[in-house]
Amino acid sequence: xxxxxxxxxxxxxxxxxxxxxxxxxxxxxxxxxxxxxxxxxxxxxxxxxxxxxxxxxxxxxxxxxxxxxxxxxxxxxxxxxxxxxxxxxxxxxxxxxxxxxxxxxxxxxxxxxxxxxxxxxxxxxxxxxxxxxxxxxxxxxxxxxxxxxxxxxxxxxxxxxxxxxxxxxxxxxxxxxxxxxxxxxxxxxxxxxxxxxxxxxxxxxxxxxxxxxxxxxxxxxxxxxxxxxxxxxxxxxxxxxxxxxxxxxxxxxxxxxxxxxxxxxxxxxxxxxxxxxxxxxxxxxxxxxxxxxxxxxxxxxxxxxxxxxxxxxxxxxxxxxxxxxxxxxxxxxxx
Length: 335
Fold this sequence. Notes:
The chain is an alpha/beta fold. It folds into 2 domains: 3-109 and 257-317, Periplasmic binding protein-like II (D-Maltodextrin-Binding Protein, domain 2); 114-246, Periplasmic binding protein-like II (D-Maltodextrin-Binding Protein, domain 2, 3-Layer(aba) Sandwich). 36% of the residues lie in helices and 18% in strands. The chain has 13 helices and 13 strands. Strands 2-1-3-13-4 form a 5-stranded mixed beta sheet. Strands 8-7-9-5-10 form a 5-stranded mixed beta sheet, with helices on both faces. Helix 2 (40-54) crosses helix 11 (269-289). It starts with a helix and ends with a helix.
């Protein structure tokens, strides 16, 4: 079994050489990637398979400092590629502009951001929660006021509400808070936060009264120890799944995932070969990791944009909560 298929990513693994990279490659061509922990499994899978195909001629390192942390490094010119679970923000665009960093935006997958509870939780009937429930739990005003499940819904017990979520540098944190609260980063601060999604998984697995959220691939790898919550956004409860992302019913927590490539790095042959490898192998590896692949036409279009050096972002620095795969493809086609 390959490392990325195990989906166990200890914090100490951040920034090390992807599994399978021969030691002799350390002094050879290198590609440095950092950013989103959600996108990490995708890039890790690409990195491992690419290194095997190159027989030690290229070394690929994949870090996991969160979308925001990754963009900070990217806009300082420290990395070749940046993983992101949301589009680049206005502030990050400006930081890159000031540093003279230009970039190519490549959508690589879709995610069903997943809210999870412990399997021993016997009060969330049918595993269903509304956006209003989540807002009441996570809004800034809940800090110091909402500490028990009963305070969210009267029929729930007076059990301690234990919350686990990504840290402030996470694109998942940004997306969730914007989707649920209507404003990115609008959240209570008294929860267990980590940029390592496996820490969040373990937190919910080990506590009956816990609730957390993270990328679908991390839930899929631990579904025997977690229960996914069906989200009612106003049209009835919908579970996170590949099918419900594709048909557009899992809203507002369905979202695209990205890789950004620095223009100056894109001129290097090893980076070009790696991106081409990603676009050719995209659908298969994304599916194996546990996310929703884009249609092959989307990967072909992304490669065309890379090949033609189409710079910038189609999002203008702003997130678009609830965007569907079809809407994303229409936006990309206009770039």
